[in-house]
Amino acid sequence: MQTDAVIRDNVMAELEFDPSITHTAIGVTVSNGVVTLSGHVPSYAQKVAAERATQRVKGVRAVAQDLEVRLPFQVKHDDEEIASRAASILSWSVGGIAQLKAVVENGWVTLSGRTDWQYQRKDAERAVRALAGVQGVSNNIIVQPRLQPSEIKTRIAEALRRNAEFESEAIKIVVEGSRVTLSGKVKAWYERKIAEDAAWAAPGVSEVRDDISLQ
Length: 215
Known about the structure:
Elements: H1 4-17, E1 26-31, E2 34-41, H2 44-55, E3 62-69, H3 79-93, E4 101-105, E5 108-112, E6 114-115, H4 118-129, E7 136-139, E8 142-143, H5 149-162, E9 171-176, E10 179-186, H6 189-201, E11 207-214
Parallel strand pairs: 2-3, 5-7, 6-8, 10-11
Antiparallel strand pairs: 1-2, 4-5, 9-10
Helix pairs in contact: 3-4, 5-6
């Protein structure tokens, strides 16, 4: 079991190692394996990158995000400009899905509409959060159900069995409509991510509840 001090040092090293993150204004505190990130970064994309980098560190049990997005000095983008660029990037980065819309208020982008696949929902958010001036993203895009619950469960179970790094028998899968609940125990954070990704990869899954705990 790693101590909080060791986890803190490793998180700071991981933030410094990641070239996509300006780490100098990020503070890190750890309590019982729960990491709190504070301070500020120059873009929303870096805020997301910092959280993901922290999740990669061994011993991290959860991440509390308290990072603020501060745009570089004298750089400012109005909502209309951000909305226009968001509409353009959605039109080509997510296959031009007409049902997707972006509304911007004070730099915060709210995405809405419907897609057939979770990867399209994620691609839309990923594309928009990289835009200059974006302070945050609310992803309200709905994934339309495509399979029966029993078929969804089978697809997820098969995906977990195919993964060489994962003990699929340790995970319980419950499907209600298009909502998936995962439970059980794993040895590391990244194994939770593997299970979540497998669940989201099933067509028509609109929500994944992760009740998996670390051993």
